[in-house]
Design goal:
single chain, 505 residues, alpha/beta, Rossmann fold, 3 domains, 10-stranded mixed sheet, 14 helices
Length: 505
Amino acid sequence: MPTLDWLNRAEALTSSGKVPYRVLEPVSEHGDTNANNLLIQGDNLDALKALLPFYRGRVKCIFIDPPYNTKSAFEHYDDNLEHSQWLSMMYPRLVLLRELLAEHGSIWVTIDDNECHYLKVLMDEVFGRSNFVTTVLWRKNYSPKSTARHFSEDHDYVLVYAKNGPVWTPNLMPRTEKQDKAYRNPDKDSRGPWKPGDLSARNYYSLGTYSITTPSGRVVDGPPNAMYWRVSEERLRQLNADNRIWWGKDGSNVPAIKRFLSEVKQGVVPQTWWPYEEVGHTQEAKREIVELFGIDVFGTPKPERLIQRIIHIASQPGDLVLDSFLGSGTTAAVAHKMGRQWIGIEMGEQAVTHCIPRLQKVIEGEQGGISQAVNWQDGGGFRFLRLGEPMFNADGSIHPAVRFATLASFIWMQETGLAKSGPWKVPKLGEHEGRGIYLLFNGILGDKRPASGNVLTNDVLAAINNICPHDGPKIIYGEACRLGPARLASAGLTFKHIPYEVKAR
């Protein structure tokens, strides 16, 4: 498959692996303290890496609205370097987002003409060309811009990729009143409203060549503008006997099949053209921001209706939605109102000055945006976190800020490839493929034992077998081990040393 080349590409390809794992430090809680929603302040590359041990493969829908690179995102560079800088910024973030995406998940990225086609090639490389789903066109303006030099750009793109394209299935869009109005019931059929369907076939069908005599006696040699009927003569008789053929009020029309509203899908396959009448436009988005904050503080916000459609198509209530370019907090607000769990990442001060107040208003039941459409009342909550120190100090030791649950999540993912966040009250983290996985750290067994129970001794092993036994082989992480090889082998133990065998680096 062709790949994209740019200045510093080689460095960009390896940068996600070089990002250190950092501690996510809790700052405050808002609303329901049992809610799993997270607002994280910090560089999104570091934040995405910090989330991996907890959420790898768990995110159902990712939406991001990255900088469009319109010669303002990196104002200190000339055009060529600016473009390369943008690609180098996007690549490692896409790599980490793919790791977080669930097997049946999808990612949606808004972009304009400046980088759309380069981003398509970049995402083909990261997600796989076969996992490309479609490009949605969002008509974002409701009137032409008279100041445009060449063309008034009326649309943005939304690139859609699935983690597993061949099996990913979008949710259907709800049927509209306009669509249902096409169904009528002129013959008062007991099965309810219907609309006529064409019976002609455009391709060769061996049983589709015959003449039809209508109830009025008129002979129809074949369908208009086609050579074949799409059903056999025998099948036509069966449909007619079941009153599923419409011949017109006087019985002389070319036959049409009756398609009943009661038998069609209870939804509509999503389309790729999204007019502003259905999902909002940029001015609507700015009005939403002004109503929330009193001033227009974001240059290119997205309307809540646009995000609502994406989340509807890509997830179910309770699923996890992630936005790592959160901006003013629109994605988190919409996901919250729609009953999804969410994670939002924002680097700047607006995480505090705008995202927290906006999401607090959602909890309190604000009625802007999509609130009335989804019957939003109030409730829920979120935790506000900041990126802390790396997991490891410069000398390779575990940073003092790291707590048991944080290290346990890293170790669990290292051993199993799965995300888990506890809670843990004993050294046993769980069982995987017949092995018990244990961690001795931060005095989990109490202060009476050597090094607060962080050293594996015969007494510590006896305590483990008493408190949280496992009938089978065990992997135990700790700061040191005072058991010999023979004793470890006889007990079915594999000891791994902290920090040297913790690979979260």
